[in-house]
Known about the structure:
Helices cover 36% and strands 13% of the residues. The protein is an alpha/beta fold and 293 residues long. It has one domain: NAD(P)-binding Rossmann-like Domain (Rossmann fold), CATH 3.40.50.720. The longest helix has 24 residues.
Amino acid sequence: MNSLDTLPRPTKTYHSQAYDRLSPSKSKFDGKGKTVLVTGGSEGIGLSIARSFAEAGTSKIIIASRSAEKQAEAKKALEADFPNTEFQTIAASITDLPRVSEIMRSLGDLDIVVLNAAISHQQVPSVGVPLEDIEKTFHGNVIAPLHMVKEYLALPMPKSGSKTIVNISSAASHALVPGHIGYGPSKAAFVNVLQHMSREYTPEKDGVRFFSIHPGVFLTTLAKDAGVSEDAFAWEDIQVPGHFTVWLAGPESDFLHGKFVWAQWDVDELIEQKEKIEKVEFLPSFLQLGLQL
């Protein structure tokens, strides 16, 4: 059974379970009057993120996913637990680009977009993965979310004066995992896309923030469909990425704009390194994917 807490990291503390510092009910994120869109939000990591934003008092949460049935189940449960939050569901695939354009232009004020929907392929030796599956994976994990980001940036600035994009990526984007020839590289490609965009758009100049995160390891539907077995990893608490995403959406995280971080890294230990992280001339590629010399 593999555990990812043994990999090198910039913090001493690794949280495989939810911890009090990031409890959404105590978060510095102010959800009043804000709208959050979560793709792939009807189950797994996406549902955890939607639930965390609701717990933090977010006024409106939009869940977009392919399954109307799963959306209905998620909406019913969320509305029962959080009666003061408005929940909207949209049945659509992010790979349907014209449909995504139509949806984004109809939403009005949108403060935070969480790009959680993803596509994978069977975990088999590289030569056994059909090129069509790799092409489909890259379209779903690079082209489709990029299209959504472009549509989001084209919208008027919300009343909050800020737009936040959180990309739910994967450790497979920087850790070489056998059998993931399409999934890992496609995740890495989109992280790199956002790294480039983070130099064009900044919180100070444009009110725009980009973050990419590894959410943790969970036996989700996507993992099961890719052939991951129940004993493959020491599975973690799925609340962690939800709580961490709410923290990123708050006022303490600007220094991580354009960076790739893990939801399990202790936020106070990251904050202690704020000056180092912000000092681009010191190490411009710190917490970013790319060549390290």
